[in-house]
Amino acid sequence: MTLTLHAVCFDANDPLRLAKFWAGVLGWTPDGETLLPADDTGFRIRFVHTAEKKSVKNHAHFDLTSTSLENQRETVAKALELGGGQIDIGQGPEEEHVVLADPEGNEFCVIEPGNDFLADCGFVGALACDGSQEVGYFWSKALEWPLVWDQDQETAIRSPHGGPKITWGGPPFDAKTEKRRVRFALRGLLPDVDRLVSLGATRLGTGGDGQVEMADPDGNEFSVVVSG
Known about the structure:
InterPro entries: Glyas_Bleomycin-R_OHBP_Dase, Glyoxalase_6. With about 230 residues, the chain is of the alpha+beta class.
């Protein structure tokens, strides 16, 4: 297999500020506007400059795990100290996870200890996405990551090497109204682009440095850097 998930990219008005925030929360190594994982996550986090302000809830967010209630409180406190904030996205008072946002409003959750679904995951437990069952199947085939959940139109995949799960919550989900601020950046060969199209992706255009812009079956933009 030649196609790999190289990075999860966030649009950012101040990429260096967000890189510093997330490096502090995750304990990852910053390399300019990119964070290099310090665990088995397997992909980078990259912040890409944009002048556009965030206006809607992201379709994807990180779920961070906790080993204890004290550990959960420590993670929340660290995020707030670094410039994050607590937000209300409609969660009920019975919810045990804590919903936060980074300094530019990108949502993420600090999950309560004892969560069975993320029990064998590391600190970055999941990238939780709004999306259809179809798009979960697409990404499972595209990355050749097995499905680890497929029930009630909810899907999840995970690298055979471990790391976070990527999940899609199924309907109902918000309609796509603008370019996604959270996107996948892949690396592969030219035949991988054709294979992605055969699986249901759409080719949108070509950028610099051998980069092919594409969209998955739900219309979520992603890029493939083609080498060789």
